[in-house]
Amino acid sequence: MAEQTASGYIQHHLQNLTFGQLPGGDWGFAHTAAEAKAMGFWAFHVDTLGWSVFLGLIFILLFRSAAKRATSGQPGGLQNFVEVLIEFVDGSVKDTFHGRNNLIAPLALTIFVWIFLMNLMDLVPVDFLPMAAAAITGNDHLFFRVVPTTDPNATLGMALAVFGLIIFYSIKVKGIGGFLGELTLHPFGSKNIAVQILLIPVNFLLEFVTLIAKPISLALRLFGNMYAGELIFILIAVMFGSGMFLLSTLGVALNWAWAVFHILIITLQAFIFMMLTIVYLSMAHEDNH
After folding, report:
1. How sure is the predictor about 8, in pLDDT bands with cuts at 50, 70 and 90?
2. 105: Cβ–Cβ under 8 A, 6 or more apart, which residues?
3. Where are the transmembrane segments (predicted)?
């Protein structure tokens, strides 16, 4: 592989493996960042999709295995871990969600574990999996990112799914009239009908911004924290690859220290996404009429 500058190294590690329509009209993988950008909206980040599905399957298989081996006698380590995790999530739902919906607890568990697993990929050395993928494909310049939550497409996709549930349950519980009333008759109200009608545009603007802020805050909070963590690991890797013994030793120490601290960020971000989802869905189930 040709010698790569620090800037080129960073840019390469921040580029997704993108599949879409090439400038010539054919469909294929982008070979440069410019090609990936030119593919537009209908491009697919294959690495993000692949790792998301793979980690989702790991979650399903692990919990399925624990369920099949569950025993009322002496439980194994996996069963203990799953039971503690389920009790933790169930307690969080009972403390936060004030409606009645059997979907919320399984949804919260899925969100927490799936996002945690995706975040956990950030602890894998930044060059390990990309170099393995390059060796397998024979392409030394292959773009390959392994942390799905550092891709805003993934975090926005999850946030929009939650947003869809918020809208669905808001209409189901409150009715279409109640939902529209929340958007147009709050926060400013008046007993005078004429004044209330005049306030509808202002109320709608304020409530619509509040509504839209929910999925955007969910997506950008998770993306921003994980992207920053990934970038720091890449910067440490640049330092580690300098060839200087002192700097390399410092790089190992920094990488270890940041990894230990980053475990807290990984867990916290999964927990925050889960808790905000529960809170937003609880608000959607509140009928003030």
Report:
1. confident
2. 89, 90, 93
3. 42-63, 103-121, 154-171, 192-212, 232-254, 261-283
